Q: What sequence folds into this?
């Protein structure tokens, strides 16, 4: 009878919501002993039982029942006044149930209102979630914890909604099972479903039944099984959400959190088998997607192979093509569980599920799926919502859907088997066309003057995305940036080089301000390889120019010059005069940073003259913007002021807010050179607000740096310090080393002014290191500052 004792002990523990560890701490009985006792593998000692009963706070009657079970005395099944044995049909509750504390507490709290004479039954329907997430385990766990509150019986029906090889149970058959359980003889069973529903509700009236309806296919299957009495509680589990089930409270299960997943794996495999292998277990848990079914199978495989450690198990599941095969154990399989969910879909839904797995990014939007499946965005949105209802996709933010990792693998294997390579490739091209065209439309909103400098892809089939304004375009670019980058990387692997070269060229202006320089470097190198693969001189020149500007941003000025000169040679050789003017302006910018001011001035003027001859307004605006700072550094301040004002007016007239912000900062530096610090401060603040509105971290760092310098000049070191610190928070994202050195100079001066020479020296040393590595004139200024500080 030790098994009866174990079941009773588990039920009392579940009622408290405690884990085995918590009960062990309160009772003084070891966790191992509690686990053995609950499994029924050993007859308990009465002294241990007494301590457990005390810790659980059992009343005398429950204490006596627990002690009787411990002594092996048979417990008589309770009978109702009509002589029928009370049904106790809940399945065995697994002793290693782990986690879900929040869900258990919520269900227990909701259940507290059932059985108390309410006007209607409490229905907890939404124990829903993807295959293998532990819905049944949770329902059974909670059912055992609540069993004593429902003395008329606990009923359990497997509705077979997603059972391999079986059709879902018809409501009439499920009602017959319930009626038999509550004492209705076979001869008394009505033949019609409606009559069985009425009889079931009559039998349940006035009773306190706990009813678990497991593995439901939909609300229509469940609705006839809901008792009418107000003292019953119904728990429904399903792989589908059931918004149509009136009165239901929704509890959707996600995968376990990392700590819970590790704990479950350790409990199933055995704590001794995982000891000392924390890193391997962490990766196993991650590769199992923290899905309980996958974790149990993986842990069971480890437990059944004594010669393995978690390292050997990890080596097997690391192979993507073997992952789902490894997560299979006799009668349990993650893939088999997924197959039943897949088979419940319509043909259109199945196609959408498979093609969505071709998306190389993390999430899918209605427009992206519309391109993949050749549908309208509204139709695609409906498909995504239906897959979400089946728990085959996760809606992590509004209208953006992603796969659980194991489901992505499953879907990828399906589409590889069920769709030919030409079909898959055509779908991928439609998706890439969607992203290329939409990215070009967004950049046309943000930088219309540069439209003809970018590749001009034709409109793809279907419904294109239309942007209402610049803010709308910016928002799309920010939200889709990771997907766009994933498309670029995947294009090279999929032998679609035109996208690997076109997308970086289209997105360059946006990515320059939003992508870390080291990432941009990899993107540019990929674009260069793709352009050469295509034999595209225009693509190669664009990639070389972009790589040159990344090297400039990283402070690698000599490499930047080399790349830009190679781009210039191609533009001149192919007669691309707008491209030539653009590269001349970039060369001037680089030469200015290197301190080669007269050469820089010559390049800027050539760029300005050529851009006006063509005419080419986009390059004219760049040349005007770059001329002012070069002339300022040469000390030609009246001429510089003329160009600063002309550039600012040009950008305002064109509606180029980014260009306006840059021009405001440059005009502020000119004013500061004239020691007009309050005027400079106002210009910097205006520029900072523009950069903030644009979400431009690169520009914000620059404005904060300039504000710090102006405030320091106004003898406000505490305020300057705040701005320098804000600048240095933004700069690591940009990879901009020149400005990082400049901020360290500002911080050194500020800390010296605040009477903190030690901190000032630390920043001055960093400024010297950066500027010396960049080989720029500012290195001497930083060295002089360091030499002025005490050791």
A:
């Amino acid at each position: 009878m030790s098994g009866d004792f174990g079941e009773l002990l588990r039920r009392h523990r579940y009622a408290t919501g405690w884990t085995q560890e918590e009960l062990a701490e309160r009772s003084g009985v070891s966790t191992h002993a509690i686990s053995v006792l609950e499994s029924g593998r050993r007859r308990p000692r009465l002294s241990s039982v007494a301590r457990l009963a005390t810790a659980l706070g059992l009343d005398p009657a429950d204490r006596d029942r627990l002690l009787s079970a411990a002594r092996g005395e048979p417990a008589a099944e309770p009978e109702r006044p009509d002589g029928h044995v009370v049904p106790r049909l809940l399945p065995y509750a697994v002793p290693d149930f782990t986690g879900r504390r929040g869900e258990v507490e919520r269900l227990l709290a909701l259940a507290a209102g059932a059985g108390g004479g309410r006007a209607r039954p409490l229905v907890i329907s939404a124990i829903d979630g993807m295959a293998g997430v532990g819905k049944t385990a949770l329902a059974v766990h909670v059912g055992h914890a609540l069993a004593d509150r429902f003395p008329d019986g606990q009923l359990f029906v497997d509705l077979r909604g997603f059972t391999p090889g079986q059709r879902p149970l018809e409501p009439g058959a499920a009602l017959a099972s319930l009626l038999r359980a509550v004492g209705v003889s076979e001869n008394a069973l009505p033949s019609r479903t409606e009559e069985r529903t009425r009889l079931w509700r009559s039998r349940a009236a006035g009773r306190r039944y706990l009813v678990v309806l497991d593995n439901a296919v939909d609300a229509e299957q469940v609705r006839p099984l809901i008792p009418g009495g107000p003292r019953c509680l119904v728990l429904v589990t399903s792989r589908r959400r059931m918004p149509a089930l009136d009165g239901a409270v929704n509890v959707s299960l996600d995968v376990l959190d990392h700590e819970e997943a590790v704990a479950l794996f350790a409990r199933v495999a055995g704590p001794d088998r995982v000891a000392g292998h924390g890193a391997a277990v962490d990766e196993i848990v991650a590769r199992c997607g923290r899905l309980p079914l996958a974790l149990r199978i993986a842990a069971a495989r480890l437990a059944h192979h004594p010669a393995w450690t978690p390292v050997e198990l990890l080596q097997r599941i690391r192979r993507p093509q073997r992952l789902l095969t490894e997560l299979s154990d006799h009668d349990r399989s993650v893939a088999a569980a997924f197959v039943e969910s897949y088979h419940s879909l319509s043909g259109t839904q199945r196609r959408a599920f498979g093609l969505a797995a071709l998306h190389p990014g993390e999430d899918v939007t209605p427009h992206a799926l519309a391109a993949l499946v050749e549908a309208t965005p509204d139709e695609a949105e409906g498909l995504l919502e239906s897959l979400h209802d089946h728990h085959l996709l996760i809606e992590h933010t509004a209208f953006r859907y992603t796969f659980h990792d194991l489901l992505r693998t499953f879907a990828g294997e399906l589409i590889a088997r069920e769709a030919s390579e030409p079909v898959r490739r055509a779908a991928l091209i439609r998706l890439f066309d969607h992203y290329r065209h939409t990215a070009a439309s967004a950049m046309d909103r943000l930088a219309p003057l540069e439209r003809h400098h970018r590749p001009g892809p034709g409109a793809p089939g279907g419904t294109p995305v239309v942007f209402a304004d610049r803010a709308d375009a910016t928002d799309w670019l920010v939200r889709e940036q990771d997907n766009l980058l994933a498309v670029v990387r995947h294009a090279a692997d999929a032998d679609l080089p035109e996208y690997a070269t076109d997308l970086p060229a289209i997105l360059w202006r946006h990515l320059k301000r939003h992508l870390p320089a080291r990432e941009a470097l990899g993107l540019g190198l990929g674009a260069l390889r793709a352009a050469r693969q295509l034999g595209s001189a225009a693509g190669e020149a664009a990639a070389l120019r972009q790589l040159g500007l990344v090297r400039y941003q990283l402070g690698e000025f000599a490499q930047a010059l080399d790349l830009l000169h190679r781009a210039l040679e191609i533009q001149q050789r192919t007669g691309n005069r707008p491209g030539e003017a653009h590269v001349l302006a970039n060369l001037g910018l680089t030469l200015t940073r290197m301190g080669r001011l007269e050469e820089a001035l010559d390049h800027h003027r050539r760029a300005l003259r050529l851009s006006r001859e063509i005419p080419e307004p986009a390059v004219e605006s760049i040349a005007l913007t770059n001329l002012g700072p070069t002339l300022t550094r040469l000390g030609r301040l009246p001429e510089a002021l003329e160009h600063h004002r002309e550039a600012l007016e040009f950008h305002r007239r064109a509606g180029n807010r980014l260009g306006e912000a840059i021009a405001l900062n440059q005009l502020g530096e000119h004013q500061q050179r004239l020691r007009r610090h309050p005027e400079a401060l106002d210009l910097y603040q205006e520029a900072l607000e523009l950069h903030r509105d644009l979400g431009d971290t690169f520009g914000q760092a620059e404005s904060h740096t300039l504000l710090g310098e102006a405030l320091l000049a106004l003898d406000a070191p505490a305020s300057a310090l705040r701005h320098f610190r804000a600048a240095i928070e933004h700069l690591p994202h940009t990879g901009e080393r020149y400005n990082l050195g400049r901020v360290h100079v500002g911080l050194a001066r500020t800390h010296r002014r605040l009477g903190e020479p030690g901190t000032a020296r630390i920043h001055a040393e960093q400024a010297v290191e950066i500027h010396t590595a960049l080989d720029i004139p500012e290195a001497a200024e930083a060295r002089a500052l360091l030499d002025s500080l005490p050791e």
Q: What stands out?
A: The chain has 38 helices and nine strands. Residues 421-446 form the longest helix (26 residues).
